[in-house]
Fold:
Amino acid sequence: MVGPTAVGKTAVGLALGAHWPLEIVSADSRQIYRRLDVGTAKPTRKERARVPHHGLDLIEPGARYSAGHFARDAEQWIADIRARGRLPVVVGGTGLYVRALAEGLFREPALDPGRRRALDAWTARLEPLELLRWAGRLDPGFRGGGRQRAARAIEVALLSGHPLSYWQQAARARGAIDPWYIVLTAPRPVLHQRIARRAEEMMRRGLVEEVAAVLSEGHPPGAAGLDGVGVREAVEYLHGRRPRDSVAEAIATSTRQYAKRQQTWFRHQLEGTVRMLDATRAPERLAAEIAEAWDEGNA
Structure:
């Protein structure tokens, strides 16, 4: 179950617990950091007691955690959940995590640096339509896109001997799951209202104090985990770069921009069965609809 931040994924995931014996695998690249609970909108302890969660509080602020690392960990969590006779439900908004788990990671073949530079210079001189034609000729699986994507398809095909779609398919064969996607959506005004309400709630719940405590451990302000939306704005305040009364609005603005990118990604990047649901309805109603659709598809 995916969708933009603040659309209501956590609430629907919890509501699904009334229909299935499930455990949630979080696919959120911000919630992996310990002690950044308010700033990353983690499920509360009470919510985690209601439905078990995996993928939260994995590493210290400042540490790095890749999509590949997530995919490997999530494969094990999913196997363990299934071994317990329960249903794993992946919930999150980090598209690269979802892709790494569902499709496997594309491992780029070795490309000669000198030939790569020469090819970059050549593709840079091509007109946009010519660039797209070359990409389509060299890679039958090319699905279109801008200059960068087309140039990438040309580069991989010519320098590796196989089209990019070949390498992507090889990665997909290593994927851990056959995904059945639920994409939660909401009209822009509704989503923006929810984002603003969440930003204000974060401030009331002690976001600034939480971030100050983590910074006091000696982490630099740009450390991994402190540079994400919802935390970096508090860091800016604590370092004197913005007034406190501007933090909530700054978080809301950054979150709206982030949510727009997420929506674009989920519209174009998911492969497999995809079901779009209007998340303006009550979580319980959405959960019932999801459970019914799942049961029908697996009858």
Observations:
- Residues 113-172 form one domain.
- The longest helix spans residues 247-268.
- The beta strands are 22-26, 53-54, 87-91, 180-185, 273-278.
- Residues 237 and 244 are 6 Å apart (CA to CA).
